[in-house]
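User: Reviewer 2 asked us to show a designed sequence for the structure in our supplementary figure. I'm pasting the structure tokens here. Could you produce the per-position amino acids so we can include them in the response letter?
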């Protein structure tokens, strides 16, 4: 029900007011949020008045999304449904929209409460040995050898690496101040999502040497570029060069983000303290780091990975 004295408005009326007023979001996040609204929320709720939306209606909407087929069928020709993560993102966007409407006095309560959402299975992290990192770096080719080593020993996210400038690389470290994402075919570079993501990460000497060699071989505005000299597109890199390289080393299930997991596992195997690992990884709190990687801190699991010298990593011979 609308607050007394307020004229009932539709969800679309509210969205036209609310979306332009949102502040502090990265450009890529703003585009993503609006896409969730336009593609999923607006068709279902845009024509309805805000106070016509009930909890059962929201639950029916979520149930529909769980079964909704996507435009791309599965490899076997069967219908591919929306991923559980996407369904949750749509729900979260609707929840934020209606929470803001409540705060503005257009609703007495938010109906997005007590909703059953699809569970999301966390993908297991795949950890590489130094020998496998070396093989992957060699398989991917000279242009991206340094990128693979930076991700696997520096722990950067691919968007952070794509945004690096040559000036961000020091003698034995790299400084992260930005991140690049691709939304609807456009590259958007902005500040990291959290202040903790702004950081300086020390690098093993052989990675620093590879980066220095890379800058000499592939000069450009950005540290990592495509064959056209422009900023590397992570989606294209993932689908082309990385996909071929992981097949070449016999790890077809490997994801780019697993290189970040690998770097953090190396730090843990070195016996570095939790606070330093958290800081280098760009995590907001040590609690998050421990929650995600706590199983690697045990003696039993830590012994699976080779131990490196505390002051430096050595590339496999």
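Assistant: Here is a per-position design you can include in the supplement:
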């Amino acid at each position: 029900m609308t607050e007394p004295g307020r004229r009932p408005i539709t969800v679309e009326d509210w969205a036209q007011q609310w979306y332009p007023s949102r502040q502090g979001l990265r450009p890529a996040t703003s585009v993503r949020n609006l896409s969730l609204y336009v593609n999923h929320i607006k068709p279902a709720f845009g024509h309805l008045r805000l106070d016509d939306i009930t909890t059962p209606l929201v639950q029916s909407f979520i149930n529909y999304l769980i079964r909704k087929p996507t435009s791309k069928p599965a490899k076997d020709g069967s219908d591919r449904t929306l991923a559980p993560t996407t369904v949750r993102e749509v729900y979260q966007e609707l929840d934020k929209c209606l929470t803001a409407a409540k705060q503005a006095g257009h609703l007495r309560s938010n109906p997005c409460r007590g909703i059953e959402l699809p569970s999301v299975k966390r993908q297991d992290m795949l950890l590489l040995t130094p020998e496998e990192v070396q093989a992957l770096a060699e398989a991917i080719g000279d242009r991206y050898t340094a990128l693979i080593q930076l991700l696997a020993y520096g722990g950067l996210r691919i968007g952070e690496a794509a945004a690096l400038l040559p000036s961000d690389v020091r003698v034995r470290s790299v400084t992260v101040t930005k991140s690049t994402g691709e939304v609807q075919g456009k590259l958007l570079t902005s500040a990291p999502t959290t202040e903790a993501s702004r950081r300086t990460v020390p690098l093993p000497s052989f990675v620093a040497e590879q980066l220095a060699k890379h800058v000499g071989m592939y000069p450009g505005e950005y540290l990592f570029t495509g064959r056209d000299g422009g900023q590397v597109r992570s989606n294209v890199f993932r689908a082309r060069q990385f996909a071929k390289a992981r097949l070449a080393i016999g790890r077809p299930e490997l994801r780019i983000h697993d290189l970040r997991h690998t770097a953090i596992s190396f730090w843990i195997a070195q016996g570095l303290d939790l606070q330093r690992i958290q800081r280098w990884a760009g995590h907001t709190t040590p609690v998050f780091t421990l929650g995600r990687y706590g199983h690697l801190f045990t003696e039993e699991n830590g012994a699976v990975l080779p131990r490196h010298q505390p002051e430096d990593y050595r590339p496999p011979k």
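For the response letter, you might also mention the following. The beta strands are 173-176, 179-183, 186-190, 199-202. The radius of gyration is 23 Å.
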